[in-house]
Amino acid sequence: TLSTLVKFKNQNIIAIDGDNLVFCIAEGESEIEIEVGKTTRICGIMPILQRETIVTTNGLRWNLDKTPLEFGTLISSSNELTSNKMILRIFRRSFSQKIQQHQLQHEYDLIVIGGGSGGLSCSKAASDLGARVALIDAVQPTPDGKSWGIGGTCANVGCIPKKLMHHAAIVGRELKHAEKYGWKSSGNSQHNWSTLVEVVNDRIKANNWVYRVQLNEKGIKYYNAFGTIIDRNTVSTQGVDKKKTSNILKAKNIVISTGLRPIYPKIEGAELGITSDDLFSLEKSPGKTLVVGGGYVALECAGLLADLGHDVDLLIRSEPLKNFDKDCVDKVVSNLESHGVNIKWRDEVVKVEKSGENLEKKRVHFKNSDDPIQYDTVIWAMGRKPNISKIGLENVKVSQSAKNGRILADEFDRTSQDGIYAIGDIVFNRNELTPLAIQSGKLLAKRLFDGSKEIVEYEKVATTVFTPLELSTIGLTEHDALRLYGEHDIEIYHSYFTPFEHVISQDSDSKYCYVKLICMRNEPQNILGLHFVGPNAAEIMQGFAVAFRRGITFSDIKSTIAIHPCSAEEFLKLQITKRSGLDPRVAGCCG
Ligand code: FAD
């Protein structure tokens, strides 16, 4: 209760009604001095206020970092009261600003911060279960100024544009062989980068639109804004519109799914390079390109650019594709080289500077060489860091990994702060894969709003590297199987094969196509891992993944009647073990 009004300057009092004082704040700075009791509760309908516009004195403080100014209520923290007088200083902006900065409080069952694969799936599943959902998504522009719409990394700057460009590269390779199949070639198979960027980005925009329609249809409130957690139930939004519209949202549950962003090296001139966030919408053809990194993004970008006709150097400081089967990685890397990618092993970039006539080129200095090299484009693909700079983790008790800053969450996606969950790439020790983020989002929504106990099984997940020859895999690598069971207890079947795509074209790629199956040596020879290097590897492995998750044996594979002729049947034809030392090259095709 408001006890006594001591001073009330420059204001129009509208009414004093018992304990309630109703007033109107004039434009400019105003002061209200009031006497307060220990349990004073001050309610203000102050939709125009920004946090920094309130100053209180005489010892009564609101913890303004933690207590949002909201349309409705400001509650004093009574145990911090050291005086019974307080001055509330308020600065009111002009009427037009008042409209722009209008802060309203909205109540939801679930607030999701981040509208990528994880956030979208969680929001949609929660809404299907009857929850009132707000989804907040915005993109911090790249240093090159690029930004994009809803859908997160996968839809805008990851899987989708990457796969479309990978396919563009395959089309180019097929064109080279077209005449062998009787097609008349126009003789002009030069690639036009701008056309590709245009069609890829049209596709992306179409996807952005579909997401927005879906959110609308499901009644999910979409805020194209940055979300900042203020306390365990409150999120403020700052719109990316010109007016920077802000809102205060409240919910019992908050999900963080803000993903990762590429890392720039800490070297002079790093800003002259770009990342995969810029590549797929790059207006100018990349030209002579240096790709720096040994992960899948680096190898995929290098491969597709080389196949699109660019001169590509790939700098790998240590081991490429660390968690994949070594034999398969060797094939993929040799195949990249055969596609014209020049691999610079065990070196580092130490400096990049502008060069060329119009200073449009980049001169790159390497650690192990005195001669710098000039490139048109430098792409950093050296890993990704958590996208957490704007999400207000400092306001809540959400723990992060000391190793890489990612959020720590348990198998139920719970963070160390009650009511706050994390899903997708932002979570420590989770594989960076869209389908995992999607599944986590869906199952979390079911646990929150449908009483489900189901959790994601993070083991036994198939994945593919979309290099010119794709590498697809599920289960243990040979190295891990040996480490876990020892050489005596495991059996490895393998073979080289010629995919039908290469039979007539005599494509040199066929010498890298390889299939490997790892199983226990003793009956029933449970399968531990499947690995495939060849065309359409992703399509092939998806079906095997279903079976593998159920637990299959080598005799299950051998007794399955093949689909003929196709590359997937190579798994069914396996008979040569690595232990035997026999030549694993397959000859003949039909029996
Ligand atoms: P994201 O999709 O990154 O979404 C996070 C969203 O949150 C973003 O829109 C971000 O801008 C937004 N955000 C961040 N902070 C805030 C904030 N404070 N307020 C509001 N919004 C915020 N995976 C595969 O499975 N297959 C592939 O072939 C594949 N290829 C890839 C290729 C590349 C080049 C890259 C970079 C990634 C690829 N991935 C692939 C990985 C895949 O894209 C990610 O695993 C997936 O997008 C993760 O989803 P997410 O929801 O965790 O995060």
Question: Mind explaining what this structure looks like?
Answer:
It is a single chain. The chain is α/β, with parallel strands linked by helices and 591 residues long. 25% of the residues lie in helices and 28% in strands. Helix 2 packs parallel to helix 9 (434-449) and helix 4 runs antiparallel to helix 5. The longest helix has 25 residues, at 193-217. The radius of gyration is 30 Å and the shape is globular. It starts with a strand and ends in an 18-residue tail after the last helix. Residues 1-24, 37-82 and 89-103 have low confidence and may be disordered. Residues 113-119, 136-139, 152-154, 158-159, 162, 226-227, 257-259, 276, 297, 387, 390-391, 424-426, 432-435, 437, 466 line the site of flavin-adenine dinucleotide. Belongs to the class-I pyridine nucleotide-disulfide oxidoreductase family. GO terms for molecular function: ATP binding; flavin adenine dinucleotide binding; glutathione-disulfide reductase (NADPH) activity; kinase activity; thiamine binding; thiamine diphosphokinase activity; thioredoxin-disulfide reductase (NADPH) activity.
